[in-house]
Specification:
This protein is about 25% helix and about 30% strand. It has about 270 residues and is of the alpha+beta class. It has 3 domains: about 1-65; about 85-175, no CATH class; about 180-260, no CATH class. Helix 1 (about 35-50) packs parallel to helix 2.
Length: about 270
């Protein structure tokens, strides 16, 4: 059997071959194949990465055919920084890169290193998420971005780079559901909308919290009129129950919204 390759069998008795190596007293599993020659190629590519400083995160894809990109990044980081991390993380100066694909990495603050060292990031469409205790969590939640948050509307990447998830690069614009910002005669206003057959304006308010509470009041009004949709309601952490109730009672909903609900056909 070739160096770094070990023969084993599946439950059905079929043979396959595992590739592994030991580097700086660390035993590392590299992958497996039903072909012994491919398993050996995986081992050789891994050894090339560990022994050749000329192979870097910028050019490594041209040097591997069989080794997974995740394992290649882990090996590069182990070689250069002495830290073996199972997820595809490469330490940079003051931050780290998480390789979501071979040529596509996300940037994170070092404060998040422990978390992403043990949580694999996955992607479905434009949503990036991790599995945590059997549940899927959008990574945007770590920045106070709601699940329904839309880049450019509810939050922005300050430097324009949507792969840069460092905390200083993410600015929240709209923290609550159904709320957007506008300006009128130089004055900032917060517009609350509820989506039914289309977006209906609930009203314009001087603070974001008032707009968020007005949205909740609009949801209650819609439900009181028999509209039983799966509305998202805003959680207001900054107010006590009494303070919330006082604002809720004082807020007015636009007549346009009230008339729309009164005439809404379920």
């Amino acid at each position: 059997m070739s160096t770094g390759v070990y023969q084993t069998s599946k439950k059905d008795g079929s043979l396959y071959y595992r590739a592994s190596l030991t580097y700086h007293a660390k035993h590392i599993s590299l992958g497996s194949s039903s072909d012994a020659a491919i398993a050996h190629a995986i081992y050789r590519e891994a050894m090339d990465i560990l022994s050749s400083p000329a192979i870097t995160p910028e050019n490594y894809t041209s040097r591997i055919r069989h080794l997974s990109f995740e394992k290649a990044i882990s090996l590069l980081n182990f070689r250069d920084h002495g830290m073996y991390i199972k997820t595809p993380i490469y330490l940079q100066k003051g931050f780290f890169s998480y390789y979501l694909e071979a040529d596509y990495d996300l940037k994170f603050d070092n404060d998040d290193l422990f978390y992403y060292s043990s949580h694999k990031i996955m992607r479905r469409g434009n949503h990036l998420f991790v599995n945590d205790y059997g549940m899927q969590y959008n990574i945007a939640q770590r920045y106070g971005i709601k699940n329904y948050g839309v880049a450019g509307r509810d939050y922005v990447f300050v430097n324009g780079d949507p792969t840069d998830y460092r905390y200083a690069n993410i600015r929240i614009i709209n923290a609550y559901h159904g709320i957007t910002q506008t300006e009128k005669k130089g004055k900032r206003l917060f517009v609350a909308r509820l989506h039914l057959n289309g977006d209906v304006i609930i009203g314009k308010y001087t603070t974001e919290i008032k707009a968020a509470i007005a949205y909740n009041k609009a949801v209650d009004y819609a439900r009181d009129h028999g509209i039983q949709k799966n509305f998202i309601q805003n959680y207001i952490a900054d107010l006590s129950a009494r303070e919330y109730a006082d604002v809720y009672s004082a807020l007015k909903l636009s007549q346009t919204y009230l008339d729309y609900i009164d005439s809404f056909v379920i």
